[in-house]
Design goal:
Blueprint: H1 8-16, H2 25-35, E1 40-43, E2 48-50, H3 51-67, E3 75-78, H4 84-95, E4 99-102, H5 109-119, E5 123-127, E6 129-130, E7 133-134, H6 135-142, E8 151-155, H7 158-163, H8 168-171, E9 187-193, E10 201-206, H9 207-214, H10 217-221, E11 228-231, H11 238-243, H12 247-251, E12 254-257, H13 263-273, E13 277-281, H14 282-289, E14 304-308, H15 314-323, E15 328-335, E16 339-343, H16 350-355, E17 359-360, E18 365-369, E19 382-387, H17 399-404, E20 406-407, E21 416-425, E22 431-436, E23 440-443, E24 446-449, H18 450-457, E25 463-473, E26 477-486, H19 494-503, E27 514-517, H20 531-539
Parallel strand pairs: 1-12, 3-4, 3-5, 5-8, 11-12, 11-13, 13-14, 14-15, 26-27
Antiparallel strand pairs: 1-2, 6-7, 9-10, 15-16, 16-17, 18-19, 19-21, 20-21, 21-22, 23-24, 25-26
Amino acid sequence: MFDTLLTPERIARETAAGHWRGRTITDFLDEHAAASPDKVAFVDSRRSITYAELRRLVDRVALGLLERGVGPGDVISFQLPNRIEWVVLHYAATRIGAISNPLIPIYREREVGYMVGLARSRMVVVPREFRGFDYPEMIERLRPGWEQPVDLLVVGEPSWDELVDTAWEERADPAVLAPLRPDADDVTLLIFTSGTTGEPKGVMHTHNTMVAANDPLPVRLGITGDSVLHMASTLAHLTGFLYGARLNVQNGATCVLQDVWDPAAFVELVAQHRITYTSAATPFLHDLLDVPDLAEHDLSSLVRFCCMGAPIPPAVVRAAREALPGLVVVGGWGQTEEGLVTIGIPGDPEEKIVETDGFPWPGMEIRVVDEHGAVVPARTEGALQVRGPFLFVGYAERLDLTRSLLVPADDGGEAWFDTGDLAYIDEDGYLRISGRTKDVIIRGGENIPVAYVENALYEHPAVDAVAIVATPDPRLQERACACVVLRPGTELSFEDLQRFLAGRGVAKQYWPERLVVLEDLPRTPSGKIQKFQLRDRMAGS
């Protein structure tokens, strides 16, 4: 079990305010399985499952996990695509008080090796193959490097089939699960966020923080038990985790999962399942509007598109309004550490949609401060700080780092979390992210951990110095450009760079998409690389 920074004072404060309700996601599953057993809970690319079927399957897998030695407080890492097995595993882990550690499917040796090692995972669950990659082979290569023994389960093979064996109902009493229900203040999620110092950080959330993060959505966005949700972003991102794997169950609704984003397929899914709501990065909306025969499909059910992770260009909002007049597009901002903090309000004027990142959720507080920690006036840029019921309870094995980002409150309330972002708040309380103090590139809503990739490139024998900077892109907002200085007498092509990163096990999505070889990098008198100069130079070339 990991140590956290959760205090009795915070528990009492959030409970008294009604934000923390002492509930787990399986409480909601049990309620809806009893009330609406035949209602479809999830649909994936191969099948659907009702609430009653989901509950039975979750219990079977939970019993199977116990049989294999997984118990309360143990970490289960799973690197699965957006399929029903992902959902079942997370809910089964919750049922027995284990901690879910979802891993993004694009991660390879470098990321998976580090994350599973830091998490001290008891078990790793992977598909046999997804998009042409052999996951069990990768895990077998990594196993000798982990200090802890790691049980490997492969979905679709005998080890996994044993977990869902119908004979469990004869061999074990599901009543053994009831005493294992976790406390709502226990850690339920260990999810990694992109590192800015060469290491990803393991963000810890409790049952209370995750349930609270979804509680305000029905009122703000009109979600009910009749809604049909959709998720194409990986469930291993907090966006997918909250709004793909859990939001529907908290509201007794249906969720349609897409394991590979394809806008044309999404259009078909909307018409087939009458999808009403989706959350995704802004480029997904761009892709939807580019579907050639969009007008030929019945998309009248789709009424909400929540864009996360990147600003919404005005032209995209106007194109959406013209092509899909019944669709309301809103943007939001958040981080893995605190979920979605702000989001637009349906009915907002266009300037609020395209010029801000939304209004805070109930219970979440935001402020902008200057270099001395004083709150600045409206529309004045400064460091963004947040606090509230969605805030995480610490970085796993990095509590000192967590403490360094917490600013004591002068009002006697909870400490403020320094997000590392620059922002301003307008006169109406709407947030606008204006820059990042963290060295991260956001490509289509996906964080690229710059220092992490730079550290990998510094291992190349031809590289003397490297700086990765963002270059603007009309669809993805930013792409990564590697500016390198080579050692005398060496050469490096873009193809060489790609092969090297592949050999180091760096996820392909993190690879720079452009290579520029320079004689030197601009630096301050103290030797620090001036990335703003490189950004300006690369943007104009």
